[in-house]
Design goal:
192 residues; Adenylate kinase-domain-containing protein; single chain; kinase; globular; binds adenosine monophosphate; two-stranded parallel sheet; Rossmann fold; transferase; mainly alpha; 8 helices
């Protein structure tokens, strides 16, 4: 699932993972945890990237994500909802080559003014949630995600929902989309 900062990705992924048998992984959260992991070889560069709202090297991001996914697979997870991934076409290709297919892409559509207003009142206590940080992330989002969106549109696997609505309304729309595509009990996509 992709969407700009404040578009509601985290909230929606959480709700979807309760309605379908998905494990929710927020790549932003996983990267922030990695910064705090003692002995991490990536901590400094990650802190720099996140402060600048930038996407780092694909090898680093996908390797950290893969380790987190494998921990869940060991506990029995088969399907994931990846919150904030893939952020670029390069990441998408690399992930699919190394790990497996991405069944579909959901984009949360939200006007910039709404995202800024939400983040201004949100109590997220994140070190990149200041006005400059938010602007940079919106900019990166707009630059790098359009190629991912085009890729999934070409595959016929792009679903877009207006997230400038109450979370409860947005999730109903998402659920309606996924109901036709995913087995609710197993979380598996019907055509994969
Ligand atoms: P988020 O929690 O989704 O708002 O992401 C916060 C920050 O984490 C971003 O500004 C990036 O620096 C980093 N990040 C999130 N997702 C990715 C990704 N797929 N690849 C690389 N960096 C990411």
């Amino acid at each position: 699932m992709l969407g700009g900062p404040g578009s509601g990705k985290g909230t929606q992924c959480k709700m979807l993972s309760q309605r379908f048998d998905f494990t929710h992984i927020s790549i932003g959260d996983v990267l922030r945890q990695e910064i705090n992991r003692p002995g991490s070889q990536y901590a400094d560069i990650l802190r720099e990237n996140i402060l600048a709202g930038k996407i780092g090297a694909k090898e680093m991001t996908v390797s950290i994500l893969r380790d987190e996914m494998l921990r869940w697979v060991a506990k029995g997870t088969r399907c994931f909802v990846l919150d904030g991934f893939p952020r670029s076409k390069v990441q998408c290709d690399y992930f699919e080559q190394l790990i497996g297919p991405i069944a579909l892409l959901i984009v949360l559509d939200c006007p910039e003014a709404t995202m800024m207003a939400r983040l201004a009142v949100a109590d997220r206590n994140r070190f990149d949630d200041n006005t400059t940080g938010i602007r940079k992330r919106i900019e990166t989002f707009q630059k790098t995600t359009s190629e991912v969106i085009d890729e999934f549109r070409g595959r016929g696997k792009l679903y877009s929902v207006n997230s400038d609505q109450e979370p409860g309304v947005v999730v109903l729309e998402l659920e309606a989309i996924l109901d036709g595509l995913v087995n609710k009990r197993t979380g598996l996509c019907l055509d994969i």
